[in-house]
Design a protein that fits this description.
465 residues; single chain; MFS; transmembrane helix; mainly alpha; globular
């Protein structure tokens, strides 16, 4: 059945634009930090030392973010949405300030943990605010705005970090995040003053949080493994922990995921699953610049542009697809486009080389990104409303709805961790041969994308309800 969809103009009316600015700004801070840190880290390490811990700033940041995002629903149930968002911004800003003045790697790592906790809450509350502050007809467009912020960060983050690092001012990048957080905080009181009152927090999901955190930690380490055995072992341990998480969630009343996820016949599990596949496959973009330089012989700048091809396609797909009045076909088409794009790159790596191959890689990555963007806003909107009873949405449990919204980010971050670890394992399979590594990398993601496309139909049943 077709679902009524609001317009972009409605999203920017006086009633909604404040909330949109806040959720977009918070997401942008988290996303920019993710990309800016990678570009300035070499300069930071050269100044403060800690070469042996080079990967830890990113690993600890993502680990803290995964754990914090899983607690979003409890935070929202404890304090008002406006106050919760201010707390998240404050934690994020404090962490960024610690990073900006860090005299050693140990202090920088402490700041990254604090910053990751605040960032995870910001990312989790972005989707929660869509449900709380926007009408249902604007949920899909709100999800597209969040995705667009990741596209902006993909362009601004590396450029900002690289420029400041080049002139010896890498600390100012973290300072800019502090200033940005303060600017967004100034908007929060007016933007979220109409948000609904708090709900009962319920029992603390300690078991689920520990299992999610452990899985994220193992995946982060597996993604850094230097050989396929270590990476594969890490993936296996993480899968066991995630299976344990699902089993625990089914049995406990102190859960992270909404109860509807495990309701017989509910499509919500498929919605989360397909979302995880789309985001997980997007993790290959982190490896594209390396492949572009080592295999195609591209200069760093050209390889960098190749690396953002998938992200650019994602944002473009979101902007176009968010206007669709029949979302279910988009959820079916999107995964097929992603599978086709990744298969094109994988086949090209097996059959061609030189400039023609690089062009086809770019085409495949853009098509794959379009596929993610085509399906993602509708999947996110379906997940946000996934805890509602089919017969009467008015009897919705607000605590369950908060869980459904926050779980979008938790699933997203875990999928990124899985994708990174999977990419590391794919590269390790090729050994010292860059071409073989690239072939294994894209072949692995192509298989996952194809399997994801096969699960699109049951997920589509949960869209546009």
């Amino acid at each position: 059945m077709a679902e009524a969809t609001g317009s972009w103009a409605q999203l920017l009316t006086r009633e909604h634009r404040g909330a949109v600015a806040v959720l977009a700004g918070g997401t942008l801070m988290f996303a920019i930090d993710t990309y800016v840190t990678a570009s300035l880290l070499p300069s930071a390490v050269a100044e403060i030392g800690g070469q042996a811990f080079y990967a830890w700033p990113t690993t600890l940041f993502l680990l803290a973010a995964v754990v914090a995002s899983s607690l979003t629903s409890r935070v929202l149930a404890t304090v008002s949405p406006g106050r919760a968002y201010l707390v998240a911004l404050a934690v994020f800003a404090v962490g960024a300030l610690v990073d900006a003045v860090a005299p050693s790697m140990a202090v920088l790592l402490l700041g990254r943990v604090v910053q990751g906790a605040g960032g995870g809450l910001l990312a989790g509350m972005g989707y929660a605010l869509i449900r709380i502050a926007l009408p249902r007809t604007l949920w899909t467009r709100g999800s597209a705005v969040i995705a667009a912020m990741w596209g902006v960060a993909l362009i601004v983050g590396p450029g900002l970090g690289g420029l400041l690092a080049e002139v010896g001012l890498w600390r100012w990048a973290f300072g800019a995040l502090v200033v940005g957080s303060l600017a967004i905080a100034a908007l929060v009181p007016a933007a979220l003053h109409r948000a609904r009152a708090q709900t009962s927090p319920g029992p603390f999901p300690v078991g689920s949080v520990l299992l999610v955190g452990a899985a994220a930690a193992v995946l982060s380490v597996a993604g850094l493994a230097a050989d396929v055995v270590a990476a594969g072992l890490g993936l296996l341990v993480a899968v066991v922990l995630l299976v344990g998480f699902v089993v625990h969630e089914r049995r406990t009343s102190a859960a992270v995921l909404p109860r509807a996820t495990f309701r017989p016949g509910s499509p919500l599990r498929w919605v989360y699953g397909l979302s995880a596949v789309l985001v997980g496959v997007s993790g290959l973009e982190a490896f594209v610049p390396l492949v572009g330089q080592q295999v195609a012989g591209l200069p760093p700048v050209a390889a960098g542009f190749l690396g953002v091809a998938l992200g650019a396609g994602w944002v473009l797909g979101e902007m176009v697809s968010a206007s669709a009045r029949r979302p279910r076909p988009r959820v079916l088409v999107g995964p097929a486009l992603l599978a086709g794009g990744t298969v094109l790159v994988a086949v090209t790596l097996l059959t061609l080389d030189g400039p023609v191959a690089a062009v086809l890689w770019a085409v495949g990555l853009v098509v794959g990104g379009l596929g993610i963007g085509t399906a993602w806003p509708h999947l996110a909107a379906a997940a946000i409303g996934g805890a509602e009873p089919e017969a009467d949405a008015g009897e919705q449990d607000e605590g369950e709805a908060d869980k459904a919204s926050a779980a979008v980010t938790t699933v997203q971050m875990l999928a990124v961790s899985v994708g990174t670890a999977l990419g590391g394992a794919g590269l390790a399979l090729g050994g010292a041969d860059p071409v073989a590594s690239a072939r294994w990398l894209f072949a692995t993601f192509a298989v996952v994308a194809v399997l994801g496309a096969l699960t699109a139909r049951p997920a589509a049943r949960g869209v546009g309800r």
